[in-house]
Amino acid sequence: MVKSGIVFLPNAESTFQLGKILGGSLSAGTVILLKGDLGAGKTTLVQGIGAALGIKDSILSPTFTLINEYTEGHLPLYHLDLYRLEPQETEGLYLHLYWEGVEVTPGIMAIEWAERLLYLPPSYLDIKLSFTKDLQRQAKIDLVGLDLDLSKLGDRTF
Fold first, then answer.
1. In the prediction, which pLDDT does 126 show?
2. Cα separation of 151 and 21, whole Å?
């Protein structure tokens, strides 16, 4: 099993396609921590995940609402954006209730600006989106406590 890898993403469509591949591979209870600068493709990746889950609603970054819940797909998608919060403010969101499935139906949880979290789930998919020297994008994907096969992604360009 591959535990980490880098995927090169030459455009927004390739970022969306990576999201679709991930969305088709993930199970209920998976938490995705998304990191990267503004415009790196975090929301585009979540849009691809939503498409793979069969979500028809437009998926937009919940910058001002903090969380958008999409429940009409094969699995629920919980999309969070912590950009406007200070790290100490994230503790009061009780995000563990989502990743533990305590008060919500277990689904996929995608957290943008996850570097602001003070505590992490016991297992998660860590995705750092960044720009290369030639202004292409890349995704560094690390599995923490997950048994997920990323070999179909390989070190390739979409």
1. 96
2. 12
Residue with tokens 């797909």: 73
Question: Which residue type occupies 58?
Answer: S
Domains of the chain: 4-144 (3.40.50.300)
Residue 73 CA to residue 109 CA, distance in Å, equals: 13
Contacts of residue 18, defined as CB under 8 A and 6 or more positions apart, other chains included, come to 7, 9, 45, 48, 139, 153, 158
| Integer Cα distance of 38 and 88 in angstroms | 21
Note whether 121 and 96 are within 8 A (CB).
yes
Residue of higher predicted confidence among 157 and 67: 67
C-alpha 74/C-alpha 27 separation (Å) is: 10
Helices and strands in the chain: count of H runs, count of E runs: 4, 7
The proportion of the chain whose per-residue pLDDT surpasses 70, expressed as a percent, equals 92
